[in-house]
Amino acid sequence: MDEVTWTTLEFEEQERHADWVWYAGLIAGIVAAISFFYGNIFFGIFAIIAGITIILYSFHSPKPITIVIGEKGVQINHEMIPYEGIKQFWLDESGKQDKLLLLVKTVFLPMVTIPIEGVASQAIREALVSHIPEVLMRDSTSAKLFDRIGF
Question: Do 80 and 139 have their domain in common?
C-alpha cells in the first residue's frame, strides 16, 4: 500500500470583527455577574477566565499539519494513531470542505476531524478500508454549533 500524505491547516480560520470580541466578553461578564449574584463565586471566576481564554484563543491563527496514512496507522504531525486504536472512519464530503472523521478508542476526544486538502477522497478511502471499517458518521451537534457562531 502506498502512503497517502497531505498538508492542511489545523482548523478553518474564521473572519471575526471587533463586535465578536465584545459579544464574547459581554456574555462572559453577564454569566459571571449572575453567578456572583447567586453566591457562586467559583463559577463566576471560571466564567471570567473562560471568557478571557476564548477571546485570546480567537486571535490564534491555524498552524499547518501533515497527515500521513501508512501501513501502521494515521499519523498527524508526529502523533501516530495505530489502526488498532481506530474503531471506524467516514469521509464527509457534504460540506464546503471534505473531512476525514475518525472514531478512536480514547475517552477524552473520541472523534478526530481532519480537513482534506489536495488529495482525492478515493485515495484516502482505499488506504483506510483494508484496515478499518467505513461507517456513516456525522460531526457532533456541538461542533456544528461552534462553527456556526464563529469558533
Answer: yes
